[in-house]
Model the fold of this input.
Amino acid sequence: MESLKKMVNILQDIIDQTKVEKMVPQLTRLPAPENISREKSERLLLNVRGKVMDEKGEGLPGVSILIKGAQQGTTTDISGNFQIEVPDEQSVLVFSFVGYLSKEQQVGNQTDMRVKLEVDSKSLEEVVVVGYGVQKKSDLTGAVTVVDVDQLKKTAASNFGQQLQGKAAGVTVGSQGAPGTPTMIRIRGIGSVNNNGPLYVIDGVSTRNQDLNSINPNDIESIQILKDASSASIYGAQASNGVIIVTTKKGKVGTPKISYDTYFSVTTPASFYDMLDSKDRVDLMWKSKQNAAAIRGTSTIPSHPQFGSGSSPVFPQYIIPQASSGPFTAADWRENNRITQFSDGTNWYKESTQNAPTQSHQLTLSGANESVNYLFGLNYYDQKGIFSHSYYKRYSARINTEFNVSKKIRVGENLTVTFSNNNRFDDQSEGNALSWAYRMVPWVPVYDISGRFAGTKANGSGNGQNPVAILERNKDNRNENLRLFGNIYLEADILSNLKFRTNFGIDHNNSGYYSMKKLDPEFSETQNRNQLSEGMSKNLRYVWSNTLNFSKSIGEAHHFNILVGSEFIRDGVGRSLNGSRYGYLFENNTNTWTLSNGGAKDLTNTCLLLL
Done:
């Protein structure tokens, strides 16, 4: 009887399996790993194949296909074919492609899906700013990316370059991370050993200035990125690294509008490296000395000026500067020594960082009527860095107006003034605070027993610098920049199909800095002198362009657009002056920070003239 029951159960399993295979021929059984349950091992995935086509029935390559409500997806191959595994027949696939309407389709029991996408006619009718004019998307032949500015606004940042990160294919964005530091944008990689930054065209004025912080993101209406030679060729050799075209906001017809936008955010330092504490680091150092002796075949006993000698280290209560042997106690303290208590493990990264708030305030007045179009904007931006005392502040004002002198003549201007400052937390050398935060020995605390900064004066502590001291001493350093950027223009309709435009733009920068390198007596390699460095620079670029644009349509199928013009560019009109001096008696009094107050010796001045 028992044997009969077993045979019936086996037959029932075979029947059930046969039914499943007949109902869903595309089901594929996954192998059952040993470390999961039998229930999970029996789970099945549906293997779906298909093809995505355009309105003419031709395969579309590169179509994005996602499982709705999940992160899994794939893309079509060069012929428009695809293959994807979905959980079941109820799964819905989302098909999307640039210039086409997105489409959702349920898998069902289809063994070979056929999906046809419809052209997004509205998208193709949108106007894109290219070259010295505009074109419809449907007429574009070059590689042009139109950035969704509304999506950029969802990222709080000091400039649109940081907001652009990850939102445009073929565009790489990099930043040093500190407040006010430059943002690097590269379009389709690096093509030169020289300047690889793109050309920026803002309201028709071109500039090679890569300082994006002076452009208020709240003023931007649209961004287009010209990637290849065909789309950027009209700008000549200066467009060899691509072109980013920025158009700022204008007033809109209607009653005057006043808007106020603000946001506040806090940046929290991320977890840092898991560093050794003092005991583990000294034990590791001791073990390395023992291993070195064993390899050499010697009987050298490990020793250290602060931790004694022997088979194991002796951890002292105090760390003594300029010591010859140890361990030491409080009885060894002397007034002229920067004695410190032995630290179980100073977390230098934690001691050097802080929660960093950022705030932005934007006030805008705009409007338009038959005679004038206007927009006035004021912005205040204040960003604190996660490293103590680092910051970036920006004050900007914008005015965009256009007046209709007559039915055929228009004049206007786009002008922005930006003033910014920070404390120059942009040192990229090995001696910056971040570098010392993970290289400084852990047994030295932040302060010595008298409340002064502790450091590596103690023998055997290496040549590290106290990063907290570096940040504190550099807090009053200052870097300022004043930028005036804009243009004035005139447009005239000579004929119904012929338009003339003259445009004169300027990009004027005036910057200055001063920084005091203060005394660092706790540092093992101190120079025992302070140094003030100060400098200023100014630069002017102006662009004058004149264009004639003829446009004519014959029926619905033929459109002619002819552009001729000339452009004059003058760049590098400016000067730069830098100087430094040593020996300041009152290094903590910023009112005395002038070159004339330095010592009589070690005077160094440099002057550079830019033509």
Q: What stands out?
A: The first strand starts at residue 27 and ends at 29. The CA atoms of residues 37 and 43 lie 10 Å apart.
